[in-house]
Design a protein that fits this description.
This is Extracellular membrane protein CFEM domain-containing protein. By secondary structure, this protein is of the alpha+beta class. The protein has helices at residues 61-66, 160-179, 187-235; strands at residues 9-10, 12-15, 23-27, 32-36, 41-45, 48-54, 76-80, 82-86, 91-95, 104-107, 115-117, 123-133, 142-152. The chain folds into two domains: 1-182, no CATH class; 185-233. 26% of the residues lie in helices and 25% in strands. Strands 1-6-5 form a three-stranded antiparallel β-sheet, with no helix packed on it.
Length: 284
């Protein structure tokens, strides 16, 4: 599937000459020209002379109309019937001059009563980031694939995601520049693709193994914690009942609930006490 994310999108409009890391696409009107990233192909259709930056010679205007964005994330997009992009402090404007009526371009200070400054518009794009860092000994291994749709401010982008996209764009730009020189050939780029895919496959396998091992380790730790907690509960001594309260002097002891009150038996023999007989002679 072809991606139309930067460095593909609407072209940049500047006065006189294109900035660094861009190539001139077409002379527009007066002294204004359009520019594209060097890794893209400038395309102007027969029925639409608004230059766009495409992946190849095929016209990519239809997907850009559905998902309008500049060919560089640091550019600001404007619209006057058609979309176009400006850089840095340049502002988009259109002119009502008779010779160039309804033409539009970018300038830092658009002068003249016939030139009307435009308001920047938001641009949205689908960004797919693939980051692969290989760890061996002291190196790190990380693979991440994120795909998200976002709308970023129309002014200079300061998001970290945009910075990442810009960095990857500049990297691909330098790579393309080195491979497009007469002294280089396309063979290194062809042989580098299997290496990247093999690293990606090995990195994904290592990540999957690491995730499974981590989950298994957490499960084992949870089981050990549960076992230790349960063993502690089983080894705790049974609670000792409190001793009965001691009775104070002068007070009756408390009646135990286990015993019932009963009378003494009535058939107990009562022994009488008798006096000595009166005729007993006293010892002499």
């Amino acid at each position: 599937m072809v991606s139309y994310d930067p460095p593909f999108g609407y072209s940049l409009r500047v006065n006189e000459s294109c900035p660094d890391n861009t190539i001139q696409c077409k002379v527009l009107w007066e002294t204004f020209v359009s520019c594209c990233p060097p890794t893209s192909v400038c395309k102007v259709s027969d029925n639409n002379d608004n230059p766009i930056c495409c992946p190849d010679t095929a016209d990519c205007r239809s997907p850009l109309i559905k998902d309008p964005h500049c060919a560089n994330t640091s550019w600001t997009m404007y619209q006057h019937e058609l979309h176009f992009c400006c850089q840095g402090a340049d502002q988009g404007f259109w002119t009502s001059e008779k010779e160039y009526n309804n033409s539009f371009a970018c300038a830092e200070q658009p002068g003249g009563v016939s030139r009307t400054i435009l308001t920047a518009v938001a641009q949205s794009m689908l960004v797919t980031l693939l980051t692969l860092v290989v760890q061996s000994a002291d190196r790190y291994l990380f693979a991440a694939l994120a795909s998200s749709t976002f709308t970023y401010p129309v002014t200079a982008v300061s998001l970290s995601l945009s910075a990442t996209v810009t960095a990857s764009t500049s990297t691909s730009t330098s790579t393309s520049t080195s491979t497009s020189s007469p002294s280089s050939s396309t063979e290194p780029s062809e042989t580098s693709t299997p290496d990247a895919s093999s690293h990606s496959r090995s990195g994904a396998g290592a990540i999957a193994g690491g995730v499974i091992g981590g989950v298994a380790g957490l499960a084992l730790i949870a089981v050990l914690v549960w076992y230790v907690f349960r063993r502690r509960r089983n080894n705790q001594p049974a609670p000792v009942p409190d001793p009965p309260p001691e009775s104070e002097p002068g007070k009756k002891p408390p009646i135990l609930r286990q015993s019932a009150l009963s009378e003494l038996p009535s058939d107990e023999t009562v022994r009488e006490i008798h006096e000595l007989p009166g005729n007993v002679l006293a010892r002499q």
